[in-house]
Amino acid sequence: MKPTLFVLAAGMGSRYGGLKQLDGLGPHGETIMDYSIYDAIKSGFGKVVFVIRKDFEADFREKILSKYEGHIPVEVVFQAVTDLPEGFTCPPERVKPWGTNHALLMGREVIHEPFAIINSDDYYGRNSFEVMAAELQSLPEGSTGHYSMVGFKVGNTMSESGTVARGVCQERDGLLTGVVERTSIGYDEQHNIAFTDDDGSKQLLDFDTPVSMNFWGFTPDYFEHSERRFVEFLRENIDKPKAEFFIPTLVNELVAGGTAQVKVLSTDSKWFGVTYSADRQGVVDKFAQLHEQGVYPERLF
To answer: What is the CATH architecture of 4-150+212-292?
Structure first.
């Protein structure tokens, strides 16, 4: 069975100042998502599921989904702050969504096969989809607890417009042992990649250090773990308006507890995205170059 691609498209780009998901950045107005879907199809994915907000469904269907008709089956699910397990009521002051793992839970009714999950506003590159599709397709039917993630080289994920936050991967024998969130990763005066540690000291990162860009591969049992842990999360955080239920948090817990193992998939793909508004023109230029080099055809769809 071909794996499914699950695309997180419910968020707003606060630093960028708009709906990055609908911004045309390619030569013919292609969105970053268009490139992800094109690469996923070429790499062997068999279905795409989008999680979006209900309030921009009409625009999304008109501007995005209509392109994919006849190319790959597509489904849409919705994330809302009020979508909580039985016994919980969303506090009236809660505006912010409950995080990436809550968004992932929205797919539990329509995904029953191994799946990968990505952000809608990140460009991941063809090879990252190829290595993930190959891994998911290699799993024996009914597999549980055999997860994966694409480990990008941190040097292939930097922004020239400012610092970035990255989940730095810790691994042993190709398996993930933990993800440590590092903020304010940037270039120093010598153009080394560096961040400030918790104690205030400067730390350097090798170019090849693997980082998570939220490109995960799961088997459907992950939904069960997510539902159980989300209840625990809400018991502890229901009254905290900014608390979020993140994918790496649960993955770390499952790995530490021996419930799951996560294979780190190496890729030479270069990630890029519009983290800051100043990044936009650079992304437009990169897509133009990829078309000129023949990586992508004149029109994707």
So the answer is: Alpha-Beta Complex (3.90)
